[in-house]
Design a protein that fits this description.
It is built from 2 helices and 16 strands. The protein is mainly beta and 316 residues long. The two termini are 43 Å apart.
Length: 316
């Protein structure tokens, strides 16, 4: 709860400073439709031939697509985006493994009282899921996730601040619905991703299926920031904080991604990124060492993913 309040205080402080320094009178916005599409492919490969130190040959690829459509006229803005990533890795003597799998849809609409104000009354829709089965490798018999298992939906309304809203924005929604979908009965029966698990009798017979959906209502705070920090170095930061009113208020779900794009030329770039997640409803499962033993549930933990790659990118 203290962390949640601290983040809120920092956001309010930055907004206040931006308002105090904003002495430029804005002109009326004209009708604008702006579409941006970007496709990127990163490939990493390592090959060893008579290498005395040893090593395993490997190749990995990551395909990313970002497409956005923005409408802006006078006091109305409407932003829509689709973001998707899929990555695979093949190492010597191992089957193909998935390294990235993400699909996200975003739609935000906002209205301000006049062209001078930086505050928008906003509504937001967000949907996230994945494409294919996820496994706790090397175990490939029991998927730990699937398409729409989980799937997340956020719908809410609130206020958004942005002096230059395409580059910097703060969004606060005091009333946001969060739906968690687990559309796989086996995973739902296990209570995966926070849904209510199946009910069994004393003989182990299932008498009630696990629920495939979990609903929450809470507070959502987001921050999006993009900047050219140095020549040919571009920073993208996205932070999302959510806490539910009814279930463990103050226990915050965190989704924080920071990405640096290093531009070599118009088509070649390098990427360095960090992605941190925490959700108290997502429990970490340890696979048993033997077939007779049961899987162990460690509880929720901080999830961290680091990305470093070089590849080609095309804007159209």
């Amino acid at each position: 709860m203290r962390f949640f309040l601290l983040i809120l205080a920092v956001c309010v402080s930055q907004i206040t400073q931006a308002q105090e320094t904003d002495s430029i009178v804005k002109t009326l916005d004209t009708l604008t439709w702006k579409q941006v599409n970007r496709v990127g492919l990163d490939i990493n490969e390592v090959t060893f031939v008579n290498w005395s130190a040893g090593g395993a040959n490997s190749i990995s690829a990551l395909l990313a697509l970002n497409s956005s459509l923005r409408y802006k006229k006078k006091n109305l803005i409407w932003f829509n985006a689709i973001r998707t990533r899929y990555g695979i890795n093949k190492q010597e003597d191992q089957l193909l493994r998935k390294t990235e799998d993400e699909l996200e849809l975003i739609s935000t609409i906002g209205y301000r009282k006049d062209t001078i104000s930086n505050w928008y009354f906003s509504g937001r829709f967000n949907f996230k899921t994945q494409y294919s089965n996820g496994y706790n490798y090397p175990n490939r018999d029991n998927p730990i996730s699937r398409f729409m298992a989980p799937g997340y939906v956020f719908v809410g309304g609130g206020a958004e601040y942005g002096k230059n809203i395409e580059k910097l924005s703060f969004y606060l929604s005091p009333l946001t619905f969060k739906g968690t979908f687990v559309l796989d009965q086996k995973l739902a029966d296990n209570g995966a991703f926070g849904v209510a698990p199946a009910v069994y009798d004393i003989d182990g017979n299932k008498i009630q299926d696990g629920e495939m959906m979990r609903t929450e209502m809470g507070i959502l705070i987001t921050n999006a920031y993009e900047a050219q920090v140095m020549e040919n170095i571009y920073l993208r930061n996205q932070l999302s904080l959510y806490t539910d009113y009814l279930n463990s208020f103050g226990n915050i779900d965190v989704d924080w991604e920071v990405v640096f794009d290093f531009k070599v030329n118009n088509f070649v770039k390098a990427t360095l990124g960090s992605h941190i997640k925490y959700d108290n409803d997502v429990k970490i499962i340890e696979e048993p060492e033997t077939e007779e033993a049961e899987a162990l549930e460690r509880g929720a933990s901080v999830q961290w993913k680091q990305l470093l790659g070089i590849g080609v990118v095309v804007d159209f």
